[in-house]
Each structure stands twice: as structure tokens, then as C-alpha cells.
Queue: 2 jobs
Job 1
Amino acid sequence: MQAWDQLTARIHELDALGGAMALLDWDQQTYLPAGAGASRGRQSAALGRIYHERFTAPEVGTWLDALEASSLDRVQTSAVRNARRRYRRATVLPGRLVEELSHARTEGFAAWMKAREANDFTPYAAPLQRLIDLTREQAERQAAPGQHLYDALLEDYDPGSTIGELRPMFERLGRELNTFLDALAGRPHPAGFDALLDVEGQRKLSERVLTDLGFDRVHGRLDISEHPFTVGLGTDDVRITTHFHADNFLAALGGTVHECGHAMYEQGLPAQWAGTGLDKAAGMGLHESQSRFWENFIGRSPAFGRYLAPRMQGIWPTLAVSPDTLYGAMNKVERSLIRIFADEATYNLHIIARFELEVGILEGRLQAIDLPAAWDDAYRRIVGVVAPTAKDGVLQDVHWSGGAFGYFPSYTIGNLYAASFGAKIQEDLPDLHERVAHGDFAGILGWLREHVHAKGHLDDAPVLFRGVVGDRDPVEDMVAHLWNRHGTLYGVQRPG
Ligand SMILES: [Zn+2]
């Protein structure tokens, strides 16, 4: 099995390079001096070039050919499947296209910033059209015969997910969520929680919560950045960043818990499979399921309010806060304009609207110039709101300006997976809520470790998900969860 040894040695090397690139990026978003951008750009580009050359080298193809002709065990079969997919997707693109895409992303991001500043879509239209054309060319080259172009893009983020499966699922979810939001409309919202809380105290509490949830501080750390993110430099070095707001404690804590979910997944990936490529997430949707599970299913539950309130009192002794106040304040639901501020239910409508637009773009039915009107139309029908200006509408996300078409579904795939994991975990650990209230999260993390994290990328996420939850219906699990959680707060019941 010489080819196997050669392939795993190469993947080891590539993972080390990838870790170094991620570290440069982490540093750029946390500690890099403001004036050091140029040399950091050169460092990242140089490593990126070496990575690409080492990964797409002809010998990698020769090893994969040899392995595909050999008899392999389960781990080898999965490793070769994953490596072949990535290798094919990378080598099928001509150097000219890769360069044009990279250039168009830089231009697209700059134009998006400018358009946002002017609150006017116009200067963004041409650079966005360029990205659309190049992305369609990329998808055409990467698509297998007969494969939908959108599926060719999905494969980058969520291998195994398909438009054929997502479209009917999202349609059903959209209908159910609209019924739910209609029922809540006009009912009084639970009271908010907007006490000003000093950042030092928030930091202390975040550290405490991270430790209680199970984030391993020996193999990870917490820092501050403008936008919270998580990066795994290896399973033994996983870093979280967060951002504190003195006037919005709950949002900042929610962000930290979200990133902690991502981080604990990275820390639980199977280190014994290093070098096979299987010590990686099985998809971005599954990654997102782990962050959303902790942020929403656990972090917005009444039990978490019972856990949190006394710990807040310990840090701010004069603060008057009850578990019920926290529970209510964390679960306000209403149709909203901005995705990143949306509640647990409405969030998915934002994604369904983007999914519809992206499919239209990939199918050639929508051009950049059509997007402002198509956006408003989709929002009116799906989310039930219309943005007064472009900044609150079609210009709100960075994704398309970087050519990331096909990423958005991951967020709702994550929410759906999280809903069924939540329902299943509640069957397996009937005293789940008592555990949460007492700050005992070990059993919950242990369940996720065993059923999700430890499996790495042995199977693609949809297969892994089915293996864990059987024939559970994730749409029904999510909708039942929402009626249960918010129905109580808003005094409404699911129509029988
Ligand atoms: Zn996330």
C-alpha cells in the first residue's frame, strides 16, 4: 500500500500548511498591527500557492488511481472518496479561471463595501455580474454529467446535499414557519433585557460558561475580534473569538455559545485519523448544527436561564435578573429585515429567500441587475417584509461579494439537523433540562461526541445525520420545537 502511505503523508503536509494559513488569518483578525496588511497578504498568498501546487500535483492523481484499483478498508474508502472529490474539483478548473475568480472576489468585495456606503446597488451590479458569470463557469466545469449546477456548488460546502432534497424541504418549512409567525403576530412580546453590563464582567462570565459547556482550554483559547469566529488549526488547537457589547449582553453571550459549539465539534473530531482527511467536519451544515444546537436549543431554553441567572448575580451582585426574564428576553420572535439579527424561526425564512434567488442565478434566470427587484419580491412572499433601502435588503450580506454562492443553505441545514439532534437527545437523556439548569453539560457533550464529533468525515453529513436520528423528520422536529418554546411565551398553541 505504497500509494496509501504517500497519500496520507501528503495530506499530513497539506493539513499543516492549512493550519499555518488559518493561523495567519486568525492573527489578522485579532492582533495584527493595522499597518502590517501588505506583508500579511504576501505571506498568505505564498502559502496558498504552495498548498494549491502540492494538492493538485499529478502524483496525487496517480496515488488516487492506484488506491481506487485496490481493495480498501472502510477508513481508506472514505478517505479516498473525499480526496478524489476535492482533487477533481480543484484540477478541473483552468489556472486562468482560478485567477479571474480570485481577482473578481477582491473587486466584488470592494464594490460591495462602496455600494453599502452609498446605500445604492448600482456600483455593485457589474462586479457582481462578473462573479456570477465566473461562478457559473466554475459550476459547469465542476458538475458531473447531468448534475444541477447548484449541486456542483453545494458540494463544496455540504457534500451529499442536493437541490432535489432541499427544495421541497425548504418549501414545506417556509409554509410551516409562516403559519407559526402569523399566529404570534400582534401578541405582546416578552420583556427585553437591556441592562448595561461591564465588559470585564461579561468576559469573566463568558470564560466561565465556556468552561462549563466543555470547551477544552488546554487545547483552545478565547480572544476578541470584530466579528466572532472559530478556527481549528488542528484538533489540539481550536480558537474562538467573541465581541462584547456593554448594552447587549445576551447577544454577545449567544455569539460566544454559538462559537463554542463550533469549537467543541472541532475539538471532538477524531485525532486518530489525522492524515486521512477524515479528522474534519462532514460539512458546513453539520458544523452549523453544532453551533446552533448550543446557541438555540440549549442556550435559549428555560433551563439555561436557570443556570445563567445565579451566575450573573455572582458577577453583578446588585443586578435584578430572574431565569424567566432571561428566557423571555432570549426568545422574542418577529418578522425582520436583517438575517444576522433574526430570531430562531425567522432566520430560516431569510435563508429560504436567498436559496430561491441563488437557484435562479445558477439556472440563468436572474442576472445581477435583476436582484434588487427579485430580492424585494422574494422577501415580500417568503419573509413578509420589504426593505426600505438597499442596505437593509439586497446589500446586507457579504457572501455573494466573495463569490460564495451555495453557502447559505448550510445555515438552515444546520438548524434542521440541530432540531432532530435536540429531539433525539431529549429521548436519550430525559433529565436533560435538569442537567442544564445545574450546569452539568457533560452528558450532552458526551452524546454529541459519540454520535457526531467522533465520526469525523467518514460519511457525508446527510448519511451521518440519518445514522444518528433514523427516520425523524427534521422539519417537524423544528416546527414542534418552535411552537413549544415560543408558544408558551406568546400564549398560543399549535393548531391541532
Ligand atoms: Zn456558525
Job 2
Amino acid sequence: MPVPTKKKLCVSVPKREGERVRKELKELDLLDESYGIEERRGRLYIPFKGEADELRYDLEPCALKPRLRPLRKRLGIRYDVIGDIAIIDWFDGILAAATELLETRRDIKVVLAAVSGVGGQYRLKDLVFVAGERRTETVHKEYGSRLRVDVAGVYFSPRLATERHRIAELAQSRETVVDMFAGVGPFTILLAKKVKKGIAFEKNPKAFRCLKKNIELNRLHNVEACSGDAKDLAPKFIGAADRVIMNLPHSAFDFLYDAVTMLSESGGFVHYYDVEPENEFPRTIERIKEAVGRFDRTVEGTCLKKVRSYAPRQYHVVLDIKISPR
Ligand SMILES: C[S@@+](CC[C@H](N)C(=O)[O-])C[C@H]1O[C@@H](n2cnc3c(N)ncnc32)[C@H](O)[C@@H]1O
């Protein structure tokens, strides 16, 4: 259902004068900002409010679309945009919201609803189709990487983009980096553009297929992608890594030994992700220091950061751990 237009009195000017006139109307408080500006045959129609005789410009009626405040602000809806697919948590009235989203954001072609939280070993959400084109595949752009994502069969969160960029900034060109839970490869791809070698593990066959495509799509020749369980794959890379990424909140602790044994003899960094309440942070740091000590290595330093808020009083956190030989 398209957003209905309304006939409005407008100032009609040649396009080249549009910006100057818009500014002037705004300064005089004569610009009706609740409507968009329309362009037709080289002229702009700028919505006008106030007394017509205050004005020295031509006035003409024109059908304009109301300018809607973003859904996020109006209805308090949060949604993720992955490529050209928007994913909204299910709520009554989602169809109207989805239609409006398709009308007002030209970059969105598909709207899906999440009807569950993230769950299962592959960290998936249950999604249902709401509006737009019937597909679940898209290409997402992030910090210069192109990522093919099939949102129905893989985990991917655009909300971690800044965190991925932070890790890429920390990495050095001589490094080998292991991404133990790579998904479609957003960490791996970004890092592989900078470092000597990337090694990516992924257990979900659908995510692994996207990962392989993404390595090709980004023309990378320094990534070794391994399909399977990180527990089985890690022993093949003992001592190979300078940096290990462990983005598997809730379960990463079970793989800490595997991560540490993959670090080179001179040590390196582990980026350990989890979901926790704030009052648990000190205990997590102690638990990890103690565990690493048992693996005959020393924790030289730790830095715990909130990545984003996850649920009430729960945070997605990252612990950067610098590990050296004993
Ligand atoms: C939270 S997602 C992170 C994906 C990716 N790093 C990202 O930032 O988008 C965790 C990924 O690990 C994969 N996974 C879960 N258990 C695994 C295991 N034991 N070994 C390898 N991959 C695993 C899941 O399929 C999922 O793609």
C-alpha cells in the first residue's frame, strides 16, 4: 500500500534555485517540513505554510508525500538491515510497518520478521516473510567488504560492524589470524585484507558455503576456510596463530584451551566474546586468567569492553586477552 499523497500549496521554482529558496523559506518559517519536496520536469515543488501574500514566489498546488518520521522513532521499532533485507522483531501491526519501510527506504527490498531469538548450535533466528521480494539472500557491504548472506540459514549481525573494524585496526600485517566461529566470514574477510593469513572455521554448512563465496567475492587468496567443528579443527593449527577470534557467546569458554594452544610459542591475542550482566565482568576475567594459567601460559593483560547491550542488564562483551609463554 503506497504512502498516500496530499495536494499541498507549493513554491514552484526551477531546480537550480531550489536549495536557495528552501533555505530562505526555512529561515522565514514558511517551509512545511512535514512533506517531502517533489521534482517534476526540471522544477521543484517546495511545501509551503503560512500566508500566501507574504511571498514573492509562484505558488502552485502539487501532490506531495508526507515526510514520515523514521519508524524507529515513531513506533520504537528496532530493525536490522542486512544488504537490502530488513529484519524486524515480530509485533502486531508489522505488515503496515513493513509496507511503510518499503515505501520510504528505497534500499530495502525485503522485510522479514524474527519470531524467535538467536538459538541452536548455528545461532539462528526463525524468520517469516512479511513483504517485498520473496528471498532470503543478499549482499551486505561493511567497511569495504562484500558479504553474501542467506539470512534464513546463517548467523549474521550488522550491529557488530564497529567491533569487527576495531579488531582489524589492532591486527598487524605479519599476523596469522584464526577465526574459530567464522559464520559467513565478516571478521575473516576484513582481517584477511590486512594480515598475512586468515584461517576460518565454520560448522554450519550453509554459513560455510557463504564464507567460501565471500572469500572469492573479495578476491582473497590468503584464507584457509575449514568446514567442521572448531574442537576437531584446532589441533591441526597448534602454534600457528598470532591472534584468535572467539565469537561464540555463551559457549566460548569450552573452546578456550583450543584457542590458546593455537597461539604461537611467543604468544598472542585472544578476543573472547560472551553475554553477561555487568556484575559478572570481574569474575569472568578471573575465571579466564585462572584457566589460561592451567594451560601453561600467562595472561599478560586483559581489557573487557561492552560491545553492545543485548537484553535488559545483559551485555555482549569482548575480553581482549594478551597471552605470553610462562
Ligand atoms: C555468533 S556466530 C558468529 C559468526 C561470525 N563470527 C560473525 O561475527 O558474524 C557463531 C558461528 O559459529 C558457528 N559455530 C557454532 N559452533 C561451532 C563449532 N563448534 N565449531 C565451528 N563453528 C561453530 C555457528 O554456526 C555460527 O556461524
